[in-house]
Specification:
The chain has about 60 residues and is an all-alpha fold. The protein contains two helices and no strands. Keywords: Membrane, Transmembrane, Transmembrane helix.
Length: about 60
């Protein structure tokens, strides 16, 4: 797979995952759980989003020897 294709497909996939996780987190916090009930999930969601961005960088952007 070419370098440009990896970046485009990786960026689209990472954006979709981050949108889903953010929407799920917001839905939990605005719904029955409230802010403090959804806060632990928000923290987990932020960690997962950070891991997704790191994986995108590691697999698509970083030049491997």
């Amino acid at each position: 797979m070419s370098y440009l294709t990896k970046i485009i497909v990786g960026a689209i996939g990472t954006a979709l995952v981050m949108t889903f996780v953010f929407g799920l987190s917001r839905s939990i916090s605005n719904g029955f759980a409230g802010f403090w009930g959804g806060f632990p999930f928000l923290v987990i969601a932020l960690i997962v989003m950070g891991m997704a961005v790191y994986d995108f960088w590691d697999e698509c952007i970083r030049k491997k020897k």
